[in-house]
Amino acid sequence: MDSSEAHLDRIEAQRSTNVSHDQRKGRYFPMNLINKVARKLCSRGGDGATPSAGDTESGLEFLNNLKLSDLFDLPGENVQMNTEIFSRLSDGDKECLEKLKSHGTPMACLKSDRGDSILHLAARWGHLELVKNIVSECPCLVLETNSKDQLPLHVAAHAGHSAIVEAFVASVTFFSDRLAVEDRERLNPYVLKDKYGNTALHLAIEGRYMEMAASLVNENQNASFLENNEGISSLYMAVEAGDVSLVKEILKTTGNDDLEGRNSNLDLKLEGRKYLVHVALDARSTGVLDVILNEYPSLEDERDEEGRTCLSFAASIGFYEGVCNLLDRSTKNVYVCDEDGSFPIHTAAENGHIRIVKEILKRCPHSKHMLNKLGQNVLHIAAKIGEDNLVASLMLEDETKHLSVGQDVNGNTPLHLATLNWRYRSIRQLASDVKILQLRNDNGLTARGLAESVLKPNYIFHERLTVAFLLYAHKLKGSGSVKSLTKPSEPLDHEKSRDYVNTLLLVAALVATMTFAAGFTIPGGFNSSGPHLGRATLATDPSLFYFLLFDILAMQSSLATICTLIWAQLGDPSLVSSSLKLALPLLVFALLCMPLAFVFGVGIVIKHVKWFSLIIILMFILFFYLVAGILAPHVLLQLPNVSPVLCGCILETIIRWQETLSGARWALFPTPSFVRLKKD
Fold first, then answer.
1. Number of domains making up the chain
2. Are 168 and 152 in contact (CB under 8 A)?
3. What residue ranges of the chain have pLDDT lower than 50?
4. What is the Cα–Cα distance from 211 to 218, expressed in whole angstroms?
């Protein structure tokens, strides 16, 4: 064995402990291949030619003195660099190389405490000229890895230094052109992975350096399809980033065979996570979606790890443009169910994406008849999750209205499901016909019977409100007798009722105090002289009469509330219940009279300023609407023997006010979600 071969064998022994398992297998930068290439080089006795004049003119003159044999002249034992060298490298001081040449230790052996060579450090800090000088002096450092198994190319890509990456690419190209054809692809730094499994291309895309990533893709095609330790390929990351040009650049490298050949080629090359169309949809990029499906149309039929088709996935996340894109290509997947038995239209309805449901119904009218594994149509799902806008839309159209009589595997109609989930807004739309109200499920229960059977004994507002609307519908349609919309609830236990009564007492006392004081603070004051000494200055103003009227009503109602609640403190449970039924409406009346008195009192003072008076009136209307919407339903649902028609009309009016003033999107009642926002 000659001396050069022995030297390379020694280098392999030194480096083998720092090479990852995948690299030792021979796939990424195997040391036995370096030996092999070096031996071939020695046998040929040549180092290759110098760069052309064009290279020199383009700023690649640092390649002039490179020799192929220098690439494999790997360093010996590592030597810890001192702080002075580290500092000068961080500053980009090119003169430090001259000092290192005169140093006893070869500069290729110097390493930082993180295992970085001088080329790693220069690349990380972005010193281009210093990088070029180091490559000229120590080409072997281009292939040297640090403690994270990263080449200087990885470090430069992670830091986003495009010019330095280009310099490394030029160096690799220089050496690659001088290797035998069979060795070029195997001795390939672009596919080398660090300890996390990332190639330089992974790191460039992760940092969103897309131009750099495109140049790396052009240098090596295969790196785009390699997975890291998390099972993610560069192609997957590019799709996830929504970069159309980069995805197009990567996919064009898979070949231009026939469709079946292209699909097979991609499937063989792509490692790790697939589901490219699903990722493009999740990134909400129709551009990337077009690139993928134009090149590989069959991927439209691909399912993700949860068994969802591309169309179903797009419907689940509410990506309307993506759904339209897929439907433009084909509507066949509308009729293909996921592994959980749901069709795309069901998935869209379950997630409240009304616009997508309407789009699917428009393009595929027959999809409204499709049932999931529970035998539920789209109206069942909309009613169950409380999508009242979708329920209203389906119930208003003749083609879908008949879905309301459909029954699932348990015999439940959409009205049954809305009742089970206490969706009082949906019930207003669904309970539109006597036939629907009288339909029974497999347990022999109508929606009314089901509501009364599952109604909790304690007072839960949205349950009581749901029952009230259901009974109101029965009353209007003449389906059975309805004496009252309210249902008696179990009284609170002693401790809770005492806290509740004390809270009401405190509020009533505050109202009484403020209204009592306001009665002696007459707007406009009193006459201090003349024949009407001590009388109100504005006694003839009608606004003063209304101020005093509502102030007196508020004070008397609050005092009556206090007197009533005193009975509730005597410890008799029956007195607690009866006292609260009287005290609550009295207190609400006092709370409504108090702001009325305030508005008329302020109006006396500023009525000469018309625009300000108008603003105050508008503010009061809004406030009165808020208070009435919050308090009135609670009071009505606890009052016994109230006319069901009157109670139902008031509740219906309050909800219609909300829908009119807020576009049917804001709910003042404490429903499971306080504010319901449109999801599309």
1. 2
2. yes
3. 1-46, 48-58, 664-680
4. 11
